[in-house]
Design goal:
With 90 residues, the chain is mainly alpha-helical. It has one domain. It has three helices and no strands. Helix 2 packs antiparallel against helix 3.
Amino acid sequence: MTNDQKVVVGFLCGAAVGALAGILLAPDSGEETRKKIATKAKDLKDDLSDQLSSTFGRLSEQVNASLGWSKTDSNGESVTRKLAKEALEA
């Protein structure tokens, strides 16, 4: 992991902990708090999924380029990146 990636992961973890602490300390009912936690967890999952997809896409493009592969579909999208997106969405 590069330093930039470590910073992003650290930032996301810090944001998640801060959001959770804020929600737990807020004067909402239990049901409202659970809904907020579920929403924040889904948002965090989506952000992490996007970040992983982007990282995997860049990595696969670098590997493909270093091996001299240029596998793209009819839309010009990398086939390996498309497969990674599908795997993350499943």
